[in-house]
Every structure is written in structure tokens, then in C-alpha cells.
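ugh finaly. both done.
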Amino acid sequence: MPELPEAEVIARSLNPKIRGLTIGSFKVFYPAILRHDRNADLQSLEKQRIRLVQRRGKMILIKIEGAWSLLFHLKMTGQLILCHHPDPLDKHMHLCISFEGNARELRFRDVRKFGFLAAVPTSNPSLSSYLKDLGPDALKIESGRFVELLQSRRGRIKSLLLNQNIIAGIGNIYANEILFRANIHPCSSAVSLSEGDLKRVWKSMRKVLHDAIECRGSSIQDFVDAEGQKGKFQTNHSVYRRNSSPCLACGNTIHRFLINGRSTFICSRCQPLPHS
């Protein structure tokens, strides 16, 4: 699933290429990707100019002049790719956006069909139901606020990091990497961690996310940027999907288990299980 780094890479690669362009038309091949039956809103966006492409949590926001803008959630396998008009379409291509006077179009492709497109208010996208409950962004939150949000919670630290209403942008890949590099066991309750522990998690979070963005994201399965290029951060993963391999820090064997149905990878020596 594309997480914060992958969404950031897509937004950064799209913004300079489509910002300022005028939308020509929309072609919807799979109407189920549209939330709240926004066909009329899509038509109203034709002939309008794109102002900005940015990320919100794990989502991509294309801000457009006028009342409505476009919000894409890529979910498990969604892709936003710039293609030339003659490039062939496959059965997983669900939407095409053409631009006036431009030979390329933006295509939304999704093998699993979990991703979606919604229209949100241009003037204040955060008022939309998709964004209003998001917590502070994982790349923007300061350490003091991070500690304040987590230090009184009894939930497992990994589950809290994955909760988009608490911290926006972190998914399973980066929660595993963040906690390993902070030497924190994923089953630790946040309330049991010291202020120093939580600041270490915050510092690790910032470092891992920035490093992943620099490496253009993690291409585990379907992720590519807007030009169709894969990321490289998967080669820097310390624990994610490295079960049965030696820990890069201490040589101990990394093992996998489930937390709330999510694969969790740890080095038990670097991330000792907390005492009950």
C-alpha cells in the first residue's frame, strides 16, 4: 500500500508537470471508483486550471480552480501515472484525465479496485469527510505534540502509529521500520513508554520517512511514481519482510507475527518485549 513517502513522491513528481495545465476531459472506465456519484462535479472541472498537487496523509490532492478539487486515495494497488495518449490502456485502467494542448494524460490504474476518487471543496479540503478526522501529519508534527498525543494512551504503540486519526500518513511498512530503528517493541503500550522513548520514536519516524522520500519510496509490489519509475527504499528496509534473515544491527534472526491481523517484523534482541 502506498504510504506517506509514496504519496509524497507522487505529489512531488506530478506537481511540476501538471500544475497550470487546463483540464480537457475525463474518461471514467470504472464508475465505482467515484465516491458520492461525483460525475457532475467531474464535468464541472473541465476547462479549469490545476493550481497545485499535494499530499494529505496517504492521499493525493489535486487542487483546481473553482468549487471542487480531486482527492485520490490509492489504497492497496492504486497508481497515478502520466502517459502519452497513444499508450495502450489495460483492463486495470479506471480513469483518464486529458489536458488542453498537452500530449500526455493522467491515468488512474488499480488492480485491486480499492482506490477511489472523491471531489472535495477547493476552498477548504479539510472539511471533507475524507480529511476532517485525520490527525497531524507525520512529517509536520513536532516532538512535543507527538509525545502529548501518545503518552497517555494504553494501546500498542504500533497500532497507534497506524491510526490515521492520531497520526496521518504511516502504514505497516514504515511503522515496522520506525519502531525497529527506535529500539521499541511494537507491543509496548504507549503509556508504558517514557518521554525519552516517545521522542526517540518521533526522531526515528522523521528520519525513516525523509529517507524513504529521498529514495523515491518503497516498491514492494505495485508502487511507481507519476513517471512509472519504481522506488528504491525497499533495499534499505531493516526488518519489513526480512523474517528469518539476520538483523542488520546485531545478527539475531528477525521474526514475524501478527498484531491486529497486520504482519509485524522485529528483532527481539534490538526490540526487547516490555515487562508486563
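ok and the 2nd:
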Amino acid sequence: MSERRVAPFVAAGVAVVLAALFAVLLLADSDENATVGSPLLGNLAPDVAAETEEGDPFVLSRRKGSWVVLNFFTHDCVPCIDEHPELITFVDQQRALGPEGAEFYSVVRDSTRDEVEEFFAERGGDWPIVYDLDYEFVNGFGVALVPETWVVDPNGFVRRRFTGTVTADGLSGTIQAMRDGAP
């Protein structure tokens, strides 16, 4: 068969594949706050430690008694940058709840202190930052890509895992539903 006879079939095949991919993207679930499975869900959170921006130890198991939200990020991750205003709103929502509000921590992965300080200076946000220098948190939680957000209940059990960006209202709503008894 000559090249002229094959070309229309190749073009038609490429068009069919592109149309199928487009259909999959249109039909995909786009819920930004969709949870993702993990063997950690329903189990005690990993007993991991790192250090805060002041160089003090941060041990996750010492946070029992509070709802804890861990958001893994890097300073140059575009989805992390996009989600940052939502995190500012979420922290404000939780602080408005007083002692009932969730504690929020950014867990830094693969960014220097200077890069993180510049990130927060440019974009705002005033919550504790945890530097996971030895990858205890990343490895303990099995974080492959950022942003990724985890919710740990007051008893130290992992309750939710979100991959990708989250919204303030979605995250606050999820935590409130769990406070009210939702699984």
C-alpha cells in the first residue's frame, strides 16, 4: 500500500483516539475535594517527627486531642500555588471555631527554608510550617505528588486523604461532617 493510501487511515485513527481522550476528560470526576484511598485510612497516623520553622521538634503523635490537617507542598508547585488562597481561608475558618477548630500544618517537601519564607512572604499565610528534612512524613504517609492533604482525628487516626488541590469550604465541610459523626 502506498503512503498516500495509509495517511487517511492514520489520521482517522489519531482523530478517534483524541476524541476518546476528550470524552474521558469531560466525563471525569472533577471534585477537587475527592478523597483517595490509602492503607492508612482508619488506622493510627504514622509516628513521625520533623522540625518547625524555628527548628523545634514537631512530633505528630503529640497533637492528639485536636483535629490535625497536614498539607504537603513545595514552593514551586503550580497546584500548590493555586490552592494557597483556599488554605488561608480554611485556616481563618478553623481559627474562628476557637479550640474546636482544626490545627493546620504545611509539610514542606523539597524546598529550602529561604524558598518557603519567600513563598509565604509573597502569598500570605501564618500557620506552622514543618520541614520534613528526613522524609519521615512523606514516607510515612506515602506522599508521591503534591499538593496532598491529610486529616487526622483527635484520637490520632487518619480519616481522610485528598490528592490535588482542596477548597476551604470542602475541607471545612468534611471535617465538620466527621465531627458530627460521619465516617
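summary for the 2nd one i guess: The chain has two domains: 1-30, 49-179.
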